Queue: 2 jobs
Job 1
Amino acid sequence: MRHYPPHIDLQPAQRAQGTVCLPGSKSISNRVLLLAALAEGTTDIRDLLASDDTHVMLTALQSLGIDWQRSGTSQDYTVTGGAGKFPNQHADLFMGNAGTAIRPLTAALAIVGGDYTLHGVARMHERPIGDLVDALNAIGAKIACTGVAGFPPLHIRTGQIHTHALDVRGNVSSQFLTALLMVAPLIAHTQAVTINVIGELISKPYIEITINLMRRFGVEVERNGWQSFSIAAAQRYVSPGRLHVEGDASSASYFLAAGAIAGGPVRVEGVGSNSIQGDVRFVEALQQMGATITMGENWIEASANGVLKAIDADFNHIPDAAMTIAIAALYADGTSTLRNIGSWRVKETDRIHAMATELRKLGATVEEGADTLRITPPVELTAAEIDTYDDHRMAMCFSLASLDGAARRGAQIRINDPDCVAKTFPDYFDVFATVATPSL
């Protein structure tokens, strides 16, 4: 893993131009690891993301007795599945701050049975998991929140599943539904399982990733709109043999925004028109702001086309990539409004509050709502020391404020605790430096 000093100083950059090979998708990587662990057979996973979050999942699976091997120094792994079981029925699992690991694993362990404890860093113990716990306990699982009700740490014991219909709220995190979908085949031995979503389902594209990957492992999900999902009886996970992890579309957003802000073209490779990730729709927001976008099956390219236009849009479908739009708004011709981003409140930090606080340091006028952010750019960006809140996306987003745009010049930016990018993109700042040309 790449390690940085306590802070990084980014000098203003007059242009962004070049090509970036993206690291693997976090969302795909951790889903594939768990599906491979639950499947029959051996799965060869190519280009798995190297990050803190995938390390957490790999370590947890190893503790559960799942055998995996890494191929040399590459990011290719071979996972031998447990055919719906975990060899070790007792384990104490440290989950860091990886929501994509703790939530599906909680569901899997509750259904498979055993005696397990799951805990993480302090922030993980502030991130809600109560809706998932309630949904599972309602059908006979035995999960106890051993600290604050509705939050990790968790103690899971063997329960007795007694129904094939589950209800889960959809308005806090789509990861709860993902977790239930992934374990549904473990319940549906003799009859179908139906999962009903209560209220609005947020981040729908992430559910599409889950369903797509389940299909790759041999399980079909029947979707009734976004309100109910059914898994027919007697389906089981079977290894697809080899599976390639496509590049991370959320990570692509920083480089595409750089091209849109500071000239370009900037091309990202590893994700494109064939992507199963919803965050590729980030480019639609950039196009609304006036950027020029071109796309192939496995690449996307962004260039500036004058001053960016202010945007007023609903970002419920791409909450992670929407953070990058908040920075692009600093270079727009007026006030931008990001709507329906309430899920930011329960991410690695309270991202609405954190973004508002740090944007103001740059001179922006920011109005913070319960699920909205309204950003008016300053006449001139102010040099600033950016706190990152142990949140990888805060660090990566604010690097863009060092870029010269058509409307205003970039500022000198100090990023505190740059090592937090290890969660998804350990060498981010090295890669960013390859496309950002320093101002004279």
Job 2
Amino acid sequence: MTRRVVVFGLGGTIAMTADAGGGVVPALSAEQLVTAVPGLAETGITVDVVDFRRVPGASLSFEDIYDLGSAIEQKLSEGADGVVITQGTDTIEETAYLLDLAHERNEPVVVTGAMRNPTLAGADGPANVLAAIQTAASEVARGLGVVVAFADEIHAAARVRKTHTTSGYTFQSANGGPLGYVVEGMPRIVNRPATRVTVPAVSAPKPVEVAVIPMLLGDNGTALEAVADRVDGLVVAAFGVGHVPAAVVEVLRGLAERMPVVLASRTGAGSTLERTYAFPGSESDMLGRGLIPAGFLDQLKARILLRHLLSTGHDTAGIGDVFRRAGV
């Protein structure tokens, strides 16, 4: 049976060519990207193309991704077997997770891009697109939600991070490793997450703002106070397992009385703790003052989840319940 995959192009390095000044800008259409992929015709996969956006990854918005989610839902409802998204790598770890939160169907949605633009020797875009299409067309990828396919590795949207500015192997999953690999054109899944949390999107999400504030040596809360009246929710990227300086404890307590405040770790791997340390500013102290533990979600994923929950009308108690399920 012929499999049909829809490719949505959003721009990014994978779609860039040189301008008159010698720099590269998004210019290639999604169709041009797909046409340039060696070996695609031999797979027997039917590929439809949607030129959805042509912008750098850094300029994508929540509205862009919510619109994309609706367009993906329509294509899957019309019978597509899977979806591929090509975009700039700057925000893949965030856009993939936002899409994953609202994707309740079994069909695979695969996000990919490139670290080396098409004007460079060894451009990785064609290989990544081919692997993404093969993954999206595969039965073994069903039920995994949204994944990132890059350098022949398949990563869960909730785990993956961009870890290097230029390396072709920049996407890594520190907590648990990749879900699988593309081997000889076939996805092989070797690691399935025990849980996956979805939160349906709404037709008219509320406009909200969520900030991420890292804790720093000698922090006295100035940055926290600067954003306090301008956001609807806050993620604190704390030291280690969830520690903050004693000088910011009362500031955070006051903020947690006004809005949901999530306690994440700035380390990028491992879970926040809940009951190991007990000094002022420790994880147990801050959770006792009303902060919400992020668990294994890093600060960027925590922001995506918190903003999505606020925009879909969840209150602080409901937000805490979802984080406890999503952060395991």
